[in-house]
Amino acid sequence: MSDQSPSVYLLHGNDEYAIRNFLEERMKPKMGDETTMDITTVDGRSTTIASIKTEAQTVPFLTERRMVVVHNIKSMTKGKTNQGKFTSLLDSVPPTTALVLIEDELLEDKHFLIKWIKKNPKRSWMQVFSLPKGPAMTHWILEQATEMGGSFENQAAQLLASYIDEDPRLAKSEVDKLLTYVDFSRPVTEIDVRHLVSDVRQGDIFEMVDAIGYGDGQKAMFMLRRLLEDNKPLALFGMVIRQFRLLIQVRELMDQDPGSDHNKIALRIGSHPYPIKKIMPQAKLFTITQLKTIYHQLSEIDQSIKTFQLEEELALDLLIASLTQ
Q: In the chain, what are the domain boundaries?
């Protein structure tokens, strides 16, 4: 990054995997090699605006620029007073600092950060990351396979999209597994997907969440250990987040219109009908309040993982324990 680069970067949207991937693979490498990188990562829920200002104004060490990454901006900028202080902070960021602001939800145009970015186009840069849904996920899988040096038949990509729905982190893991299976020598077929990405894995996720709903900690922990045999902890955590996000969406629509079938709900959500049909009975195990409380816990654990305060597998163990105690 040169001295002409923006001083403030805003990455926001509900595709946290894409945000994290962009930060790790596109932004951080521009700060130099691992031996000279000067990068600080903080969580907005456990720091102050004054502390961030101090970090932002610190002179880089052994490099031209330093990067300060701040997660959860909204939690520390509630109210006009805090927003005013944060705006002053943004105005004071020197050219030697790249202040990266990350929010795992879509910010509205009226949000003060969006307004500041638009007023300061030469000093700032913004990117929105939205989860691909339905046909967009199929297209995402096809593009991802091409980028990785392989290919998928359209029917295979559609089937995989129906299995993983709107979880790019899980999708990338499955695409990699399928391309490796065919040795990158031919397109992945629908048969390959059915063989390798079976409903057994999805069934395990459903069984684990069912056990959580019934308060059966022993079974939930057993299913977790079983899932970890075939999945990386981070990918599995993404599957759990996706499951509860879908549960919230489905439960809300079921409460609004008790007569809705899975096709109608899938259409309103923008999802494939297959996972919605399976998830509707499970949604009845929880109230919408319980689901939102669990999702809030997942969000907090996710941030702890991102800021390296908690290891992925331990985070999953603690989650199961807290939800079934």
A: 8-128, 135-196, 199-324
- Topology of 135-196 in CATH? Helicase, Ruva Protein; domain 3 (1.10.8)
Pick the CATH number of 199-324 from 3.30.750.24, 1.20.272.10, 3.40.50.2300, 3.40.109.10: 1.20.272.10
The amino acid that residue 152 corresponds to is F
pLDDT at residue 3, rounded to an integer = 47
Tell me the pLDDT tens digit for each residue of 27-57: 988 876 655 568 899 999 889 999 999 999 9
Which residues in 131-165 are b (16+ Cβ under 10 Å) and which e?
bbebeebbebbbebbeeeebbbbeebbbbbbbbbb
- pLDDT one-digit tens code per residue, 167-200: 777 788 889 889 998 999 999 999 999 888 754 4
Angle formed by the axes of helices 312-324 and 217-228, nearest 10°: 160
How far apart CA 293 and CA 284 sit, in angstroms, is 16
pTM: 0.57
Q: Does domain 8-128 have CATH number 3.40.50.300?
A: yes
Cβ atoms of residues 225 and 217 within 8 Å? no
Answer yes or no: is pLDDT of 209 > 50: yes
* Residue 206 parent element (H or E): helix 199-213
Percent of the chain with pLDDT over 70: 93
Residue among 231, 149, 162 nearest 190 (CA): 162
DSSP 233-292: HHHHHHHHHHHHHHHHHHHHHHHH-TT--HHHHHHHHT--HHHHHHHHHHHTTS-HHHHH
